[in-house]
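Our preliminary data section would be incomplete without showing what the modeling component actually yields. Below, a chain of 276 amino acids is followed by its predicted structure, encoded as tokens that our downstream tools consume directly.
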Amino acid sequence: RPLLRVVYRRTMMRQGLKFSFLLLCLMSTAGCSSAEATDPNATVSGFCENWAKGACSHDVVLTCVGADKISDTLIDNCVIRQRGFCEDLLPDTGYSSRYASECLNAVKAAYSDARLTASEIATVRHRGAPCNHLIKGPRRAGESCNSDDDCDTLEKYLCVVKSGEGSCQIPTVVPNGDSCAAPGAACNVGYYCGVDEACVQRKAVGKDCAADFECATGLVCDSDGNTCTARVSAENCTKDEDCTTNVCDIPATASEGRCVTSITLAASTGICENLR
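Predicted structure:
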């Protein structure tokens, strides 16, 4: 009997150890699964924190601050400012992280060399592609819109504008000169859907026009002479839309700037105001 009791105790101890080991594995697996399932971009604050970290590279911070040596404080200050800038770019409702990674990768790449081209500025300053698929807007297919965020961009709907009127469509870019009559047909950048429903080139300064959308970026249709005219002087822009290049370089201490094709970051550039 003493021998049987010893064997019984050892058997129970082994079973107990097996159960404890199994329980530990289950807890560990659940913990790992939970960690893996957590989406760091699930909320606007989380997304914008990661946006800011992607933008505030060492080169960007050093360049915008005008310092010779990086520090945690300088990076933290940049992240705080850029996070707020990012949050201001997003509407109050409708955010989804479905395509957040594509956007964040583009932001990080844009700032990697401390120089921003026109297409990069469209992405990091105006949430252009691929950052234009973050919002589930309230408008359905075919309904009117003023901006992409009015549409369900998560399902690839964007605001396709024709004759100055926008509607939510899944855009299909058609070749220059081809028909844009289909609801989702969109013209290339620099072209618009003309009265004959074909993609025609936007008009340059001095060309006849009937509406602003017929004129090139940075131009308006002058109501007096019905000709495409510059919004402002290329040396006195206040926003990117004022320029045919879509880039207005405003010094940090000024309210006006000049139209350029790209911006190399420096302590004196206005873009650096929320990157330091």
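The longest helix spans residues 2-37. The first strand starts at residue 115 and ends at 117. Preliminary results of this kind motivate Aim 1 of the renewal.
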